[in-house]
Specification:
Number of helices of chain B: 24
Distance between the termini of chain B: 80 Å
Radius of gyration of chain B: 37 Å
CATH topology of the largest domain in chain A: Immunoglobulin-like
Shape of chain A: elongated
Strand content of chain A: 25-35%
Oligomer: heterodimer
Number of domains of chain A: 2
Distance between the termini of chain A: 26 Å
Radius of gyration of chain A: 30 Å
Largest interface: A-B, 54 and 68 residues
Helix content of chain A: 25-40%
Number of strands of chain A: 18
Largest sheet of chain B: 5 strands, antiparallel
Number of domains of chain B: 4
Number of strands of chain B: 19
CATH superfamily of the largest domain in chain A: Immunoglobulins
Strand content of chain B: 5-15%
Strand order of the largest sheet of chain A: 2-11-10-6-7
CATH architecture of the largest domain in chain A: Sandwich
Structural class of chain B: alpha+beta
Chain lengths: 328, 673
Amino acid sequence: MNLSAVNPTFFIASLFRTWWQARLRKSDTILLTQRNIYILPTKAGLLFAATLVTLLITSINYQLNLGYVLTFLLAGSGVVSMQLTHNTLRGLTLHMKPVTPVFAGDAAGMDVVLSSPSGARHGLGLKIESADVTTLTWVDVPSGGQATAHVSFVPASRGLHELPTLSAETRFPLGFFRAWTVWRPSGQVLVYPQPERPPATLPSARPTPGGPAQSKRTQGAEIEGIRAYRRGDPLKLVFWKKAAKSMETGGELVSRDTSASSQHELWLDWHACGLLTPEERLSRLTAWVIAADRAGVNFGLKLPGVDIGRDHGDGHRRHCLEALALWN
Amino acid sequence: MELNVLQRIRRLPREARDTLFLLAVIAWTVLPHLPHLPVWCVALTTVMLVWRTQLAVANGPLPSRWWLGALLVISAGLTLWTFRTLLGKEPGVTMAVVLMALKTLELRARRDAFVVFFLGFFIILTHFLYSQSLLVAAAMLVSVWGLLTALVLAHMPVGQPALRHAATLALRTAIFGAPIMALLFVLFPRIGPLWGVPTDGPPTTGLSNTMHMGSVAEIAQDDSVAMRVRFFNRVPPPEAMYFRGPVLTNFDGHVWRAVPDSRAMRLFDLRTRGEAVRYEMTLEPQRLVVLPLLEAVTTPPSVDGYRVMARDDLQWITDRPVFERLRFEAQSHIDFRSGASATRASLDEALELPPDYNPRTIDWASRLRRDPRYARADARALAQAVMTHIRFSGYSYTLAPGAYGNVNPNGAIDEFWLDRKLGFCEHFAAAFVVVMRAMGVPARVVTGYQGTDPLPVDGYYIVRHSSAHAWAEYWQPGIGWTRADPTAAVAPDRVLRSRNLARPPGLVVGAIGTMSPALLGQIRDAWETVNNRWNQWVLNYSRGQQLDLLKTFGFSSPSWEDLSLLLIGSLSSMALAGAAWAWWDRHRIDPWARQMDSVRRALHSLHIDAALHEAPRALADRVRLQLGDAGTTLAELLHAIDRHRYSRAAAKRPDNSMTRQFVNAARQLRRNR
């Protein structure tokens, strides 16, 4: 930012870029046509033109008809390569797949599906528009087929982010021209807070408020906590005896409701994080959510203004992480 | 063993393989230059290319820039040491080849690769400075193809594309570019050299304005074509096939030179007898002002773009040197007399002998002159006497007589005439002229071409550089200049049958010749025909042909500007056509998508809104659901479309009749409701 403020060229260029990108409509699919493909000669193309001039002058000075043939053959190929470079992009369809959420600090991967209705396309490169040329992801699209390019970027912070503007370019076949397009994909990516590393130990579970803090087993090996089977429950948790009875009567499988949760409740509490800045608290809570989920225990999440009841499983985890990502 | 090598190459990583391919292309491109390059350059280039190959195979690190800088300085120094300059053709080619090899050792970034490609294109062009033959053109076409393939490979970053695939893509690019090449070649205005007069262009051999002892020997071994002649009315006999080039009168003891134009454009005196021989001549670039026409020409031939003038010594000269292939018509009279009215001053020039040169030959000549048998002899009789001497005094004709003048730089002719007696046309001609002058007879050396290939090819008689010749003329009062060919006295074959000393044939040619001389002749003739067409249509294409072409297009008096306008017009319309095609092409979408578009539109008219992702099968279910029994036909059609596209026996393209059927059925349904 400082640089662009100091250097007027940068400043104007960035203004232009902002204005230009604002004109582009967001879409999750884009068909590349003449209207959204740009093409300019590359440095190599200019060098090639200089070579052609040298060849032509030599041919003229030495009156070499074969030299003319060579010069014009190369010139013809160069001109045709412009058309071919443009063709490589034209008619191509880019489609953005939904982007899976990531933790802050990790790279978010965008899968772009390129499909070509006609011939094969070679040497297509995708990158974040503002990123360096070296970050290009190269992909070939087979004739009448599809290919997926994986472009990643590191979101700056947690929260819901717009997908960055992408550019697709090609220099195929001769590299004398660069054809490119700028695309604003319409999707969003959810960024969870960065989990604290190393993670702080989970807070200890509290006894159920109001209930007796007793052993979970009652007399006669009767198991107190059972619940309906949930996908993902390990087989050893399935309470086969009871399940058999239940299924005879048209019911479902039942699982033991293990965990201390029946007696002890694990709450991941904003106020239990210690004296940290809000972002650090969020990081710690995120690490806890991950740890608790890994341990397979029931847990709840308490943030100022947000209260998520005790549960477990993927959906619960995602729910908690989303809350952490979007909290403010 | 060979298979193993191939397998090893195939197993190389992508980068190594691409580098090896590029090195092979470079080697192929440089190879034809080997005879023109100094030994050190050949050695250095070979070492560098082998080094790079080894690095590519072993995936070793490239040498540091210090190495490269040192090599560059060394090769520049060697070039300077070899040629005494860095400018000009030979040093330029040498440096280009060395730079190319050096650059392969510095292939780090994409930019380096481009420099190699562009140097490669330039080296290809330098081949044409030496030869523009069909063979060279074919070899260089392979080079261009190879370089383009390497370029395409460099822009296919994914996976390991097959070389053949890249080569096909490169070929496609070149073939698409061919019409533009043809257009530019035909219409790009041909102009003369932009600056300077290149004296080192192709061919390096040919006639010269001066004659040193030994300089013609190089021409005599050059079998390339100097000109092609097509006779219209009659073909002169071989012994009359003298094509007159520079006439060398002034002799300073070492070098023979022509009389300057300022003193040679005073009195053109030529009388002819009999019918003229009319012919068309296609003349390779001579880089001289002299047109080597058949002796002797009375009326100036009209050569497009040049002013042609006659000199007193029957040389026809152009107003500026000719660097292009010329085609023109001319007529000559084989039976002619010239110079009977020559001025005393011009004859004096033809009598001058530098003092202190070749004293023994001059002494020999004056003794002959004093011989009582020749006391009353005229110039003709004296010439006859000298010819007889040449014939019977042990002279022999050879292309490799060795150098003369090493023992005594002032006595080169003495050494030839009296001691070694070995030589070819120029030795005989020069000695003959010196002897005649010593006897008081004005004489001069004439250079040019003598004789053609015995049989015409495609109607054209071919005159080769190996037919370059030097003969003499002496003057006698009342008659004028008379041709005397001393070479004919010692080697009559050389003149009568136009057979030069044949070089030993190559191995293959020799084998074919032994088995079937007729076949060899046929092959040679066919080759000459192709070569002739190549020369006529490609190499000979010049401004004259361009303007002729414009005339056939209906331009009454075509000019340079018309040519440029036509070229710009054609290129613009080509560009417009390309843009129009691209514009039209933007509507071209996947035919399957177009089919689904029609289907969705038809369904929309029936108030069924289909989403983009819904397959025909899914749509069929919805049609059944929403239209009930009325939709059965539509649903079946949708199933048919679905099968047509997705089943095991799916078609490549949608069937448009199915689409139409569906749209019609939908329309009917809408009407019925």
